[in-house]
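Minutes, project huddle
Topic: does the predicted pose make sense with NAP bound?
PN asked that the exact inputs be recorded in the minutes so nobody has to dig through chat later. Recorded below.
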Amino acid sequence: MTDLTHADWQSLAGAFRPVTEHHIDGGPHAGGGRTFTVVSPRDGRALAEVACGGQGEVDLAVAAARRAFDEGPWPRLTPTERGRALVRFAELVEEHRTELALAVSLEMGKPVTEAYGIELRAVANTFRWYGEAADKLVDELPQTAADALALVTREPVGVVAAVVPWNFPLTMAAWKIAPALAAGCTAVLKPAEQSPLSALLLGRLSVEAGLPPGVFNVVAGDGPEAGRALGLHPGVDVLAFTGSTAVGRHFLRYAADSNLKRVWLELGGKSPNIVFPDAPDLAAAAASAAWGIFFNQGEMCTAPSRLLVHRSIADEVVDAVVERGRTLRVGDPLDPATEMGALVTEAHLKRVQGHIETARAEGARLRCGGGRLDRPGTYLEPTVFDQVTPDMALARDEIFGPVLSVLTFDTEDEAVRLANATEYGLAAAVWTANLSTAHRVSRAVRAGTVWVNCYEEGGLNVPFGGMKQSGHGRDKSLHALDKYTDLKTTWVQL
Ligand code: NAP
Ligand code: MG
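Predicted holo structure (tokens), as shared on screen:
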């Protein structure tokens, strides 16, 4: 943790000098002169004018990544050498942790202590983990007849483009860039238009880490232009995307309309959090439910946005969640006492408020929150609706804000049916002290991650990703390397 005070962070913010140019071929690149304004949701004030990349900048970045892959040293280094560079990158992230955390907090509104303590720790850990893993991988030697030798080897797939969202702008980037680079690929990152500042700073740091020019490029710009250009680019071999399901569909089309590049999708969620009466600790289940939906302003793909609670304990659990919602400290992301910051943009806040209006009109009962804070910036009260029914939009749509839907159930079968009544399948949780219930329900729920008696737990050594329309492919763990490597079979007749 950091012991910087509110005043310290405010004065750092006053002195904040953002990086505003693309990072292409090992250095800053101003682009063609077009810019866009990054506004801080903290106070609605402009933070920076950032270079706005389009086809031209994407062409340059992909060409640089292509050269670095086809002719440069990176894929030809020993895995140990690549690993050392990634560990050095992790150390640089740690050295610049305060500045990076500030950039994240100012651009997307999360509490700076969470940016520092959670996001930046995850980013450094990710680069270190894949750096350390780089030289510990082994290939396969399938058994054959005595007169033959079969080799199954992994080769880096080439140029990887990563297009990521703003909610964890650096973590989502690191989950893709670190394994791609460890595998020997080169990369182009396009951050979300709301959160380019932290990514551009990361690009700068990569030079100091000793990554050769072109190995890691960052192009800032708008999705329908720069993101689309990457999706359609013939020089990109793999497109790794995290974001909404709607935009994920675009990337599949871009691939089909261009070079059939492989597309990996990490998409949205509407995750069920199922609480049985025999949960080991109902207070802990309620605290976790509240934390899960309000953490990061609810702007979490894995947010437990549907609380499915057994009717017999619904009052006890929901009252505790509502109490937490009422007392949560919403405010300046730079104040270490703040528990929930600002929503990412005015447009996003309006969208979330629209969901709240719809929920009211559909007859869900508002238990707390629902209103915007009367102050500059985009702050919303922690919001809980109960008496939600499965047909309501509130039970189906990803809101991506601090808005919880509570549904009740009577039987285990009903809980599983409700849990699976969604197009998404990213995550789920089950609270029960009964081992059989825990395993039965975990198996029955279609989700990439199921937590039992906890939420959002895990480490880099476990895969993360979705089922159904939450996507496919996995970030984290050695499985992530599957996305960035091709398998080659070499059959030798002796
Ligand atoms: P988004 O609107 O889908 O944007 C994600 C990225 O795609 C941004 O970089 C965006 O660029 C770009 N983009 C937008 N339109 C595009 C287009 N037509 N062609 C190419 N690229 C385009 O998502 P978001 O609002 O940033 O993030 C929220 C979503 O991300 C939620 O659905 C959430 O569940 C999901 N998410 C999923 C995970 C996961 O691991 N499964 C993790 C975090 C978030 P611009 O911003 O520059 O327009
Ligand atoms: Mg956009």
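Observations noted during the meeting:
- The domain at 272-447 is CATH 3.40.309.10 (Aldehyde Dehydrogenase; Chain A, domain 2).
- Residues 193, 222-223 surround magnesium ion (ligand 2) (CB under 6 Å).
No decisions taken; revisit at the next huddle.
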